[in-house]
Amino acid sequence: MKKVIIHTDGGCHGNPGPGGWAATLEYGAHHLEISGGVPATTNNRMELQAAIEALSTLKESCEVEFYTDSEYLKNGMSSWLAKWKLNGWKTKSKTHVKNEDLWRKLDSLASEHQINWHWLKGHNGHTGNERCDQLANAEIEKIKKQFTSAELKSKLKELEQKNS
């Protein structure tokens, strides 16, 4: 089984706001960087999207060392997910799991691999994390240049209406 090292990061300018995600994947001498963004989202959605996109690039079952600075992502995958599924995608307080659509997709992708989830402190000089942060922020800047301030505000209103 191939051994892959993945680093991911996601973020927003404002939360919610324009967001970006990024991942780096390493397999032996091979190195891949991927990134993307959306005009209106949340930080947590970008963290999840980064993980989804990273795992989506793998073409076969792999052993993965997965590094994230998101406790939400790491704890969700390591601790909360099994309980949510048993409870019909409800939290212990009986409310719907936020970002259920992304959690379901990530769960499906993760089930194809052997993954060790690692949390690391963000903005602490860790090369993989710092690179993903740079890539995610570059995506946010691209979005800010693509859309006017009014268009971004409109996208945020759409997001708020969708989530209410």
Topology of this structure?
Blueprint: E1 2-12, E2 17-27, E3 30-41, H1 43-56, E4 62-68, H2 71-86, H3 100-110, E5 114-119, H4 127-146, H5 149-163
Parallel strand pairs: 1-4, 4-5
Antiparallel strand pairs: 1-2, 2-3
Helix pairs in contact: 1-3
3D architecture notes:
With 164 residues, this protein is α/β, with parallel strands linked by helices. It has a single domain, classed as Nucleotidyltransferase, domain 5 (2-Layer Sandwich), CATH 3.30.420. The chain has five helices and five strands. The chain has helices spanning 43-56, 71-86, 100-110, 127-146, 149-163; strands spanning 2-12, 17-27, 30-41, 62-68, 114-119. A five-stranded mixed sheet has the order 3-2-1-4-5, with helices on both faces. A hairpin with a 2-residue loop joins strand 2 and strand 3. Helix 1 (43-56) runs parallel beside helix 3. The protein is globular and about 50 Å long. The relative contact order is 0.22.
